[in-house]
C-alpha cells in the first residue's frame, strides 16, 4: 500500500529516513534557538535525538547538538519530524465532553467554527456596521420619544393648540374654559337673523324662533382633550384644526318655520283654460308654479346656521303647466263654433233644446296629457233643467229624504228609475265641439240609482233642527215667484257629510221651463231684468242658516250695494254662472234642507245633529260714503233708491256648553247705491 504511510522497505541511503530541519541553519549562521521553556526534547542516545546508528558528526562543526545548553557550543539535535505523507489531511477533531464543548461561532478561518470567546475572535465588518445602525436608531427613537412625550404631557387634559371654532381659538383651554369662551364669543353670532333667498326674494329668519341653537357641548366634544397621540401632537405643533359648530334644532318648530316660508314662496301652477262669460270665450293663460322643497330647505338652513355664508339660497322647484299658452289660444279660437246654435237632445220621440247659454255655461276646455286642450262638458248639471222633458216623471229616480211630522223627521224612501246617461252625453257633446259636427244628439237612457240608499239616509244623524232663518218681502212682484220656485226645487235635499253644496250646480241655469220668470237683478251697478232674478234673497236666507248652523262657508259674495231687508254683513248674492253660493257640510252628520216660501217671506231650516251654539256680533258701520243722484231716460230704466256705502265687521262666535271655542271675523264693504230716477 503506497499511500497508507511510510514505506516498509528499508532505505538504501542512511539519511533518507532523516527529515531535514524545518528551518535549516546555513553555514556560518548563529545557533538556532532553544526550544521554549518547558518543552523537553525526546529521548536520544548520548543526549541527542538522532535515530539509532546515526552519528552526530554528520552535521559537521556547526556547534549544534549537545546537551550542555546554549552558549556552550554543544550541539542540539532538532526533533524528528513525523513521517511524510503523500497528501495533507487535517487531523480528526477531538470531541470534547458536552460540559466542556465550546460555543461555536460561524465564520471561522478555513470555513470551520471557532470557539466563542477566543482571544483570536474579531467581529466581521458587517456585524460592526449593523451594531452602529442599531445604536443610531435607538438614539433617534429615544429623542423622538422625548419630542413627543414632553409636549403630549403639557397638552394632556386640554383642547389641542391650534383648535378654532368659527374663528374663536380654544386651543390650550380646558373643556370648561373652551365652552365658556365659545358661549361668550358666539352667542351674538347665533342670535343674528339669517337671510334666505328664494324665488328672487329675500326672507329673514330668526334662528331662535325657528328652533335653532348653538350646541356648545357637542362642538367641544369634537376636539380631543385627553392624552394626545403622536399625530395629534404633530398637528398641534405644525398646523391648525378648524371645528364646525354643532347645531341642535327643534324639528317641529323648524318645520313650522319652513312651512310659513313656503306659504310666502309657493305659487300654485295655473293651468290654461277656456270658459265662457255669457257666450263669449274667456281665456285663462297658463302660468308656471313654484314650490319650496321643504326637506332640502330645512337641511340647508341647519347647515348654514353659524356658518360663514351671510345668505342662504333655498331650493325651489318650478312646476310647468300641462298646456302651453299657444294651445289655449287655439282652443279659444275654435270654441266659437261650439256656440253657433242650440243643441237638440232626442229620446223615444221626445226632444228638448239645450240653449246656447246653457251649453256655454257647462262647457270648458282643459289641458290633456298630450299638452293640447280638450273640451269638457258637465252634462249632469246641464240636463237638470231639461231632463224632465225627456223622462216620464213616473219612471224618474227619486232620492230618499225626510219630512217633518210633529217636529220629528221621518224617512221618505228613495227609488231607482230611468235617467239620461250623463257620461255618454258628456262624451257626445265634447266630440261635437271638437269636430264642430251635427248639433242633434240622441240621448241614451240608463237605470239611475238614487244618490244614497235608504239605509245610508237613516245613518246620517238627522234628528233635530240645528238652525233656521227667515227673510221677508212684499207680495207679490215677479221676484217672489222665483224665490218660491227655487225653494220648491231644494226642499228635502240631503247634503252628505263632507259634501259641498253648490247652488248653481244643483239648480242649474234658471229657465222658464221650470217656472222661473224675468225679474230685476243688479248687474253693472244697475237693476236689469233677468230670468230668475230675485233668488239672491233665497241665497241670503240659506247663508244665514249655514252661519247659525256652524257649517263651513266656502263661497259667498255680498251684494254690491246694501239692501235694507238683509242683515248687514250677513247676506249673499248669486247669479249664473257666477258668482255661486257654496258651503260645506264639515260635520260627521248629514244635513237635511227644508224650505218654505209664501207671499210674505221665505224660510230655510237645517236638520242634523247640533254641534255648536252660534252667536253673531256686528261692529258699527264705518267708512261711510254718500250716494249720488242720477236720471236715466232709457226704456229699460229701473229706478233705484239711494243708499250710503259703508264698511262693517261681523264676528261668528262658536260655543259649546256656553264656552267659546273660536270666533271668525268677516269684513264687508258696500259701495254707495245711486239714487236713480227714470224719466
UniProtKB/TrEMBL annotation:
Pfam families found in the cross-reference section: PG_binding_4, VanW
Residue intervals of the YoaR-like putative peptidoglycan binding domain: 209-307, 373-441
Organism, as annotated: Streptosporangium longisporum
Stored InterPro entries: Glycopeptide_resist_protein, Vancomycin_resist_VanW, YoaR-like_PG-bd
Keywords: Membrane, Transmembrane, Transmembrane helix
Start and end residues of each stretch annotated as Disordered: 1-127
Transmembrane segments: 133-154
Feature: compositional bias, Gly residues: 62-72
Protein name according to UniProt: VanW family protein
Biased composition, class Pro residues, residue ranges: 76-95
Record's compositionally biased regions (Basic and acidic residues): 116-125
